[in-house]
Amino acid sequence: DRKKLRGLKTTTAKTLDGTAIELHANIEMPGDVEQALANGATGVGLYRSEFLFLGRDDLPDEDEQYASYKAVIQGMKGAPVTIRTIDLGRDKMPKWAEGEIISAANPALGLTGVRLCLAEPHMFRTQLRALLRAGRHGKLKLLVPMLANLAEVNQVLFHVEQAKEGLREDGIEFSDLVEIGGMIEVPGAAITVGHFLKKLDFVSIGTNDLIQYTLAVDRGDDSVSHLYDPFHPAVLHLIAHVIKTADQANVPVSVCGEMAGDVRLTPLLLALGLRRFSMHPAQLLNVKQIILSCDLQKLGALRPMLEQAADADQVREMLNEVVA
Ligand code: PEP
Ligand code: MG
Question: Can you tell which superkingdom this protein's organism belongs to (predicted)?
Answer without folding.
Answer: Bacteria
